[in-house]
Amino acid sequence: MLIFIDWNYSWFFFDFSKAHILCGIVILSISLYFGVFLAREVFKPPIVFVISSWILTVFIGAYLVLLPDSKMNSNHFQHNLSKKAIYGLVVLRKTNNNVLYQKYLAEVSSVNRKKSSGFVWIKVYGNKDSALLKPGAQIVTCNELNEIKKNNNPGEFDYKDYSKKKRIGYQLNLYNNKFLKAYPERNSLVTEALKFRDRLHALLNQLEFDEMEQSLLDALLLGKKTDMKKELTTGYRKAGAMHLLAISGLHVGILLLFVRTLLRPLRRWRIGKKVIIIIPFFSLWVFAFITGLSASVLRAVIMFSLISIALNFNRFYQLNPILFMAFFISLLWKPLYLFDPGFQLSYLAVFSIVNLGPRIRMLWLPKNSIKRYLWNLMVISIAAQTGVLPLILYYFHEFSGLFLVSSLLLVPLLGVILGFGYLLLFMLMIDAVPEFYIQIFSFMIGLMNEIVFFLSRYDSLIVEKVFFSNSLLVISLLSLLILFFYKTKELFKRLGVVLLIVTVFMTSVFVESVIMKRGVSFIVFHKYRKSLIIKRSGRSVSLIRKTEKEPGLDQLLENYQLELPGLKIDKEECNQNLIEISGRRILIVDNDSISTDFGFDPHILLLLNSPKINLERFLTGVRPELIVADGSNYSFLKKRWIKTAAEKEISFYDTAVNGAFELNI
Predict the structure, then answer these.
(1) Nearest partner of 201 among 226, 222, 187, judged by Cα
(2) What whole-number distance in Å separates Cα of residue 245 and Cα of residue 489?
(3) Which residues contact 625 (CB under 8 A, 6 or more apart)?
(4) What is the pTM of this model?
């Protein structure tokens, strides 16, 4: 629905306003009405109906995306930004916690006492109190809002793009409590859910589980991951069980199965059938409330609420329309979910289980109940992993071969922990928890962690740094759609489809490999007070400059390698000051003894390590087209150089402002 919409909402070089989109919706609705009128006596809908329906959904999606945009909203705080503005903000939820700061999502409620709207990130520094700001707290500050910068280097996580997809373009840095709290707090259903979750978290803390057990309980039962231990996340990632820590469709599905299993004896009575319909549906939304009504949980609960209804009417084998309905409702609520990796992974996993699972299950039909249970568990894991594999490789560039073993061992245990865990929360609320129950539950939590840490030792089964481009992702997803919907009993046709998919995939890999072999790049990375410069010719990478013994620079190189497959890095530095790339001359100035008597002008002048030169005098000997300064230079020197370059009418590129400098030929 939103696949053709970019952040500026420009289609085919035309900017659509609300009026344009509303007119389009009206016209298409009329066309749709006539399509329905024509289809009254025809079993198959006419082409007018099909086309009008599809285009209408696109226009509705465009309108929903455009509705809260700052350009179309006169109350948005971006229209009133200034250095001396007074901002009123409402804290919505805490999103992160580390040694340096605590991070919150907040809504801008006012600017200079005028009602406003829009969302920002807040980073609170200099205070170790994790309970500093509660959901619903109102604060007032004069600190300036800072626009979120794009990623500085190739391959790095694009924080600006991530925030933009959540309609956030600015962040606020608060130091040493330089803000005022306003009263009363603003309450809403979400803030009440978060406060209730905090009370449950406090009750769990009274049981004095160890740190690892407490972190796991917070993640599984309450969806609280802000204080997650790094050792725990690393272990689960290596074991191929990272999805267990993030509440998603798996947890909601297990909860639905658990509740329906408990209520199965009620089917004997007439009133029991109505109870079976109501209680599972109600339980899912109570679960969403307990976990803080987060976006990922709400998406999963919407989907499984509709699946629960379908199961009550024996429509398990007709779940595709239910999934599409849940998908459509979620996008109507939050259209930009379409670009959220969690949303994509959740729906694709369930879609794969529904469509690919039955085909895999038919390969073996064991009669033994234990074997049948284990086989069904394997089928679900294989089907889900097959569906989400392209997205996992694209977003995370790694794959764990332990996913099947971890699913067989951990998913049944997860179901038991969820059931016993929520019973434990209920007993804590009524202050009636037997000591033996706590010991049994602690043993199960510890057992789950021990299994994970045992599996994570097998590093050889973890494939890391996998290259997966946009074209490979598209081909993989299209191939999955073909596997889902192309149904034939003829073996020859099945093999033909598989061979076609493999051929197209390998051809794409070959074409990208050939293109990369011919590519030449010169990259100046950005790192504060450090230098990293490389030259790439095909798969060969030469280090031009690199600050010694700096692990952060090694990480930059690893991130860059993820974008291009098979790179070989020569770690011996090339200390030349004059480099030529396909006729483009680059002069590197990193000391004050560089001569300008070349007999020609370099195209690019690169300044490193704050050289003690008079740039104005230096430019009398050379006349470059562009001056580049990296992060190793002092800020006060760069300010002088920018002024000198402007006087000489020479372009200036500062990596601290514009990110890494790339010259691609």
Answers:
(1) 222
(2) 40
(3) 603, 604, 650, 651
(4) 0.82
Q: How many CB atoms lie within 10 A of CB 554?
A: 14
Q: What does the alpha-carbon distance between residue 170 and residue 87 come to, in Å, rounded to a whole number?
A: 13
DSSP for residue 186: P
Helix (H, G, I), strand (E, B) or coil at 346: helix
Asked if residues 629 and 525 have their Cβ atoms less than 8 Å apart, the reply is: no
Round to whole Å and give the CA distance between 636 and 626: 20
Question: In angstroms, rounded to a whole number, what is the distance separating the alpha carbons of residues 46 and 286?
Answer: 43
Q: Which of these, 643, 610, 607, lies nearest to 624 by C-alpha position?
A: 607
CA distance 246 to 501: 32
The b/e string for 293-323 (b: 16+ C-beta within 10 A; e otherwise) is bbebbbbbbbbbbbbbebbbeeeeeebeebb
Q: What is the pLDDT of residue 633?
A: 94
Report the distance separating Cα 253 and Cα 308, nearest Å: 9
Write the DSSP symbol of residue 432: -
> How far lies 131's CA from each of 42, 202, 504, in Å?
63, 12, 54
Q: Measured at the alpha carbon of residue 183, what is the angle toward residues 180 and 189, in degrees to the nearest 5?
A: 115
Amino acid making up residue 305: S
pLDDT in tens, 450-499: 999 998 888 778 888 787 888 888 888 888 888 777 777 776 777 787 78
Residue type, 219: A
**In the numeric block, which tokens belong to residue 222?**
């309450």
* 154-180 pLDDT tens trace: 888 888 888 888 889 899 988 866 777
